[in-house]
Design a protein that fits this description.
This protein is of the alpha+beta class. It is 25% helix and 24% strand. Bound molecules: fe (ii) ion.
């Protein structure tokens, strides 16, 4: 396949690329392979000044891969406004904490894209960690120690960060959500490795509670060091795409009253966290 070389520059040395292009070029699909490649290497692609409607966003997303369709359709509106986000507004606060999307699945989404529609005067920056870089820079002995560890992921743990005093009803609902055990180190098909850390990480299998908490918290501190992080300062019509299999993300706290709204499209993945589950059915 012929690709036209895109103009792109590093946003930080280890994570994120700023790509210069326009809507017709994105919709043509001619940059799709190169964009996937940049996402693989740099975890995040940011493109400024792309004014597009929802149908165009979905059409562009389809050039990159298969788009997830949920009960709200192909576009999910990220906002605290219940009218625009009936299924997620109540738990939107959980996105203020570092996470990988959908650790409740064996096969998480490959990535997502957000386009900025309404912003807040302060806060609301989205931050990304390159989880490949965070793994690569670990000492050799540490890599060896972590290599075969497994971690229990529960959405209840993620929600407790955001809502430390839940009602009995909230707690009971969270406890019904799927729990998964994933490797701490994702051994990708490509031969590269990344850390699987998230606000859903609950305990390390085989370690006692204290050791487990200490390890997860130390690794989170390690992975969120400035050299592994890109912070996106949003402007209207920014389009940001991230590789969920090689990045962790969060949004900085913001005041919900300004109606901040970003439109998200999610690209389905095909690589399980655990390579021994290569043949499980993909869940959408
Ligand atoms: Fe997320």
């Amino acid at each position: 396949m012929t690709t036209t070389s895109l103009t792109h520059t590093d946003l930080t040395p280890r994570v994120g690329s700023l790509v210069e292009t326009d809507l017709p070029a994105l919709l043509s699909g001619r940059h799709a392979a190169e964009l996937r490649q940049i996402l693989e290497e740099r975890s995040v692609v940011a493109i400024r000044g792309i004014e597009m409607d929802d149908a165009q966003q979905v059409a562009f997303a389809r050039t990159l891969g298969e788009v997830e369709s949920s009960v709200v359709g192909d576009i999910y509106k990220v906002t605290f406004d219940k009218k625009d986000n009936p299924i997620g507004a109540a738990t939107n606060r959980a996105t203020f904490f570092w996470h990988i999307d959908r650790t409740d699945l064996d096969v998480p989404p490959f990535g997502s894209m957000l386009s900025a529609k309404v912003l807040t005067p302060t806060g609301g920056q989205t931050q990304f960690v390159n989880t490949y870089a965070a793994y690569d820079d670990l000492a050799a002995e540490e890599k060896e120690r972590l290599d075969d560890l497994k971690v229990l992921h529960c959405l209840e743990t993620a929600f407790l960060d955001a809502f430390p005093n839940p009602s009995d009803k909230q707690r009971a609902a969270w406890q019904l959500m799927p729990k998964k055990i994933h490797p701490l180190v994702w051994h990708h098909r490509s031969g590269r490795n990344s850390l699987v850390l998230s606000n859903s990480a609950t305990s390390v299998v085989g370690l006692d509670t204290e050791e487990s908490r200490a390890l997860l918290s130390r690794l989170l501190d390690w992975a969120t060091q400035p050299q592994f992080v890109y912070t996106h300062e949003w402007a209207i019509n920014d389009l940001v795409i991230w590789n969920n299999t090689g990045a962790m993300h969060r949004v900085r706290e913001y005041d919900p009253h300004y109606g901040r709204r970003l439109h998200r499209t999610t690209l389905l993945g095909d690589e399980p966290f655990d390579s021994s589950k290569e043949h499980v059915d993909r869940e959408a």
